[in-house]
Design a protein that fits this description.
This protein folds into 3 domains: about 200 residues, 3-Layer(bba) Sandwich (FAD/NAD(P)-binding domain), CATH 3.50.50.60; about 120 residues, 2-Layer Sandwich (D-Amino Acid Oxidase, Chain A, domain 2); about 100 residues, Aspartate Aminotransferase, domain 2 (3-Layer(aba) Sandwich). It is α/β, with parallel strands linked by helices. The strands form 4 sheets. Strands 1, 2, 8, 9, 10, 11, 17 and 18 form an 8-stranded mixed sheet that branches. The protein has an 8-stranded mixed sheet with strand order 6-5-13-14-15-12-16-19. The longest helix is centred in the C-terminal third of the chain and has 19 residues. Bound molecules: flavin-adenine dinucleotide (FAD).
Length: about 450
């Protein structure tokens, strides 16, 4: 139970819009950091159609940091590289992917089934009571002022709307990001827009298919083949759509089986899905507008050939999360004690004859200006540390101080100081006094 008045308000530390792999990972990272998080996702469940099939050791390392790597590794298969074959089946070149553990302590590359991965990430976020997930809620408007961001979300089941305030809002809402729209950012087109048919199958019986990835560099129809998409019986083909072909005709099961006939028949496998995707290459110019941020596909999109679209999004949120964690609500530890908590700690210390050393270098930056007493004023055996560098922004003075009511500790510290190199300059002390007298 917390007595911090801040945590009792309706104000969240972070609102996450969109619960795909980027949003799910961010919810885990911030949940673990103890942040008060709200998530809005417009769909009722995980997006059923697999998209990403490859992740790397760096992403696994991030999953390790949220305690999910072992679980996730169980639903992956170590990935080999690609053979690039020409139309005659001759090897043109090879993308070699190293086996074994890499510098992150995990395999270099893995294959997985995106809906399964997302299921584990969502289950992971359920560990944190401070993460509140609202599915079926579409965010329609976002505003911000100097104090917070305000998010309007519509419940798609009953049509009601809800306004929420959060110190920061992160748009993990994919390629058609609403957050990006409200931020007024500009998307830069890097020049690739190609329609490709993506086909996922599950084997019904043993079939002799290649066990390595293949890029069929065939001008008649460039095709990517991906084995073991998270399971030994799941395979994928990505086939370039040719001029004149339509999405409707290509997604027809008869046409899909015709295209797969070189490898499989309907007796061999079940078609999990066949969908034409437009592969884009874009980057959003600004990923931050004051209290609003973008991450994942909302900030950048790339064609899937390197298997890095989702990985880049996971790196975005890993990078963002620790910065959000240390900057919310308003100090680098992310938390200030309440007076009740200070008094309770002092009581425990008093009963057990404990001295308390309290680093209070951020005093003066308390949320809502709710300034607390120095710990040394609350407890007779406490030592408080203060400095000019943080709250006062006067780091150049290199002046700090300690305060205590305990004369014995005070004298010992003064005596000990004679044996150290600590020596304040007189002008700095004078300037500090001038600055403090202006408060
Ligand atoms: C065929 C294909 C293959 C791919 N292969 C790979 C690969 O091998 N490796 C790899 O790393 N990447 C790959 N990618 C890319 C990868 O799938 C994406 O980069 C990744 O899914 C993006 O994750 P995200 O969380 O940023 O966005 P998304 O997964 O798009 O999630 C965004 C979420 O936001 C929700 N949302 C949107 N608007 C709102 C709103 N207004 N309110 C509330 N919720 C909202 C959406 O419903 C969605 O759930 C591939 C992509 C495709 C299409």
């Amino acid at each position: 139970m917390t007595t911090d008045p801040y945590l009792k308000t309706d104000l969240y530390d972070v609102a996450i819009v969109g619960y795909g792999p980027a949003g799910e990972t961010l919810a885990n990272l911030l949940g673990q950091a103890g942040k008060k998080v709200i998530v809005f996702e417009k769909e009722e469940s995980v997006y059923h159609a697999p998209r990403a099939s490859h992740l790397d050791g760096e992403v696994m390392r991030i999953y390790q940091s949220i305690g999910l790597a072992e679980k996730i590794e169980k639903v992956t298969i170590g990935a080999k590289g690609y053979h690039f074959l020409n139309a005659e089946g001759r090897l043109l070149t090879e993308l070699v992917r190293r086996d074994g553990k890499g510098p992150h302590g995990w395999n270099h590359h893995y294959r997985f089934h995106q809906p399964v991965l997302e299921g584990l990430l969502r289950k992971g976020a359920e560990r944190f009571g401070n993460v509140h997930v609202h599915l079926c809620h579409e965010v329609t408007r976002i505003e911000q002022n100097e104090h917070h961001s305000a998010i309007l979300a519509k419940n798609r089941k009953d049509g009601t709307t809800r306004e929420t305030k959060a110190l920061y809002t992160i748009g993990c809402d994919g390629a058609r990001s609403t957050v990006a729209k409200w931020m007024g950012t500009v998307k830069r087109d890097v020049g690739l827009h190609e329609p490709w048919l993506v086909v996922d199958i599950k084997l019904k019986r043993q079939v002799n298919l290649p066990n390595t990835g293949i890029q069929y560099c065939e001008p008649a129809r460039p095709t990517t083949f991906i084995p073991y998409v998270g399971a030994r019986d799941r395979f994928r083909w990505e086939m370039k759509v040719l001029p004149g072909e339509t999405k409707e005709e290509l997604e027809e099961p008869e046409r899909v089986w015709e295209l797969l006939s070189r490898w499989l028949t309907p007796e061999d496998a079940e078609l999990e899905r066949a969908a034409v995707y437009m592969f884009h290459s874009t980057i959003t110019e600004r990923w931050r507008n004051n209290r609003l941020f973008l991450a994942g596909d909302a900030a950048h999109q790339m064609p899937p050939f390197l298997g890095q679209g989702m990985c880049a999004g996971i790196r975005d949120v890993a990078n963002l999360s620790w910065k959000l964690a240390i900057n919310t609500p308003n100090n680098p530890t992310g938390y200030t004690l309440s007076l009740d908590e200070m008094t309770a700690i002092a009581e425990i210390a008093r009963e057990n004859h404990i001295h308390v050393f309290c680093d209070e270098v951020y005093k003066g930056l308390e949320f809502d200006g709710n300034r607390l007493p120095w710990f040394a004023d609350v407890y007779e055996n406490a030592v408080s540390l203060g400095v000019m560098s943080k709250a006062y922004g006067l780091s150049g003075l290199r002046i700090g101080w300690i305060g205590t009511q305990n004369k014995e500790i005070y004298d010992k510290m003064i005596g000990f100081k004679n044996y150290t190199s600590i020596c304040s300059s007189a002008p700095s002390e004078f300037l500090s006094m001038v600055a403090l007298s202006q408060l």
